[in-house]
UniProtKB/TrEMBL annotation:
Record-linked Pfam families: PseudoU_synth_2
MF annotations from Gene Ontology: pseudouridine synthase activity; RNA binding
Origin species: Coptis chinensis
Pseudouridine synthase RsuA/RluA-like domain sequence ranges: 61-253
Gene Ontology biological process terms in this record: enzyme-directed rRNA pseudouridine synthesis
Region (Disordered): 1-25
InterPro entries associated with the record: PsdUridine_synth_cat_dom_sf (IPR020103), PsdUridine_synth_RluA-like_CS (IPR006224), PsdUridine_synth_RsuA/RluA (IPR006145), RluA_PseudoU_synthase (IPR050188)
Protein name: Pseudouridine synthase RsuA/RluA-like domain-containing protein
Catalytic activity: a uridine in RNA = a pseudouridine in RNA
Highest taxon above the source species: Eukaryota
Length: 318
């Protein structure tokens, strides 16, 4: 009797889990992701940072421009070799002076752009807390393939969490706080998007520092846009207002403009006769208070070639 009651109780609890609003991983993604991971492992094992990859360095931290297809840990492990070879480093590494290097932020394997590496435990603690508390303003550039959106700028707020299969999914904003199958809860996720170019027509503009008010957010409660027509190329700037795993990629998929090459979230693996070995997402800029001096610092990474090409006007002859 008690065993039966326990089974019924388990069934009831399982049925109360919130339903994801974004679709599961496409079947093709497993094979492609495995190939990409193997390729990245090989590339990362041979990776060495060069001086041109360093955006900024002082005695407390280093800001680097990570290339696509390289794991963060391999960027970190290549720092000592670069500093040993660099005579003009603020704090050169010697046998008697080893640094306590830490990753203050992380990027997905195929995301390029700005990473901050700290040189001491104390500075790492301060900067990691600033990232966790969302006190660091970040912008990204993404190249999306889908239908041109009706909006030029939009801010959306939703839930975020893992489904019963362990996959990151978008949930309704009203589901925030509810329990998920793995024992975690749905957390809030907010992102602002602005269109920079459509089909290579547009122009680069500097990121805005203004933040949307609560009234300006579109609160997500229904399923997202079904992306079935891959006809347009949309370059967007993204302002993540929270720092959830795969946040930008999930929200792009939800809006019906998945990132080119992002096979996990319905992004086109092939486009205009070319196959891509990673997704087109770039960590463009960081703005924060320096963890030691307290001064506001801002860093910007050069645009990758795919972003520059997306801003170029189409030739009238071509």
């Amino acid at each position: 009797m008690s065993e039966k009651a326990h089974v019924n109780s388990t069934t009831i609890n399982t049925s109360t889990y919130p339903t994801p609003l974004s679709p599961p991983l496409p079947p093709i993604s497993k094979q492609i992701e495995l190939q990409r991971a193997m390729s990245a492992s090989s590339k990362s094992s041979l990776f060495t940072l060069s001086k041109k990859d360093i955006i900024f360095e002082d005695e407390w931290l280093i800001v680097v421009n990570k290339p696509q297809g390289v794991y963060c840990e391999n960027v970190l492990s290549s720092i000592p070799q670069l500093l040993i070879a660099s005579a003009d480093s603020p704090v050169p590494i010697t046998e008697n002076n080893t640094l306590e290097l830490h990753l203050a932020n992380r990027l997905d394997r195929d995301t390029s752009g700005l990473m901050v590496i700290t040189k001491s435990h104390k500075v790492a603690g301060k900067l990691v807390k600033a990232f966790t508390d969302h006190k660091i303003r970040k912008t990204y550039i993404a190249l999306c393939i889908g239908l041109v959106p009706k909006w030029e700028k939009i801010s959306i707020k939703s839930g975020h969490g893992r489904s019963k299969f362990g996959v990151w999914r978008v949930y309704a904003a009203s589901d925030v706080g509810r329990s998920l199958p793995g024992g975690s809860n749905v957390r809030d996720m907010a992102t602002t998007f602005e269109v920079l170019a459509v089909n290579k027509r547009g122009k680069f503009k500097e990121p805005t520092r203004s933040r949307p008010s609560e009234e300006e957010f579109v609160v997500v409660e229904d399923k997202g846009v079904v992306c079935c027509d891959m006809s347009d190329e949309i370059l967007v700037r993204v302002y993540p207002r929270s720092g959830r795993t795969h946040q930008i990629r999930l929200h792009c998929q939800y809006l019906g403009i998945p990132i080119r090459g992002d096979v996990k979230y319905e992004g086109a693996h092939e486009w205009e006769g070319r196959a891509f070995d990673g997704h087109a997402l770039h960590a463009e800029s960081l703005l924060f208070d320096h963890p030691v001096t307290g001064l506001q610092v801002e860093f910007q990474a050069p645009l990758p070639s795919w972003a520059i090409q997306a801003l170029e006007p189409v030739s009238e002859d071509g």
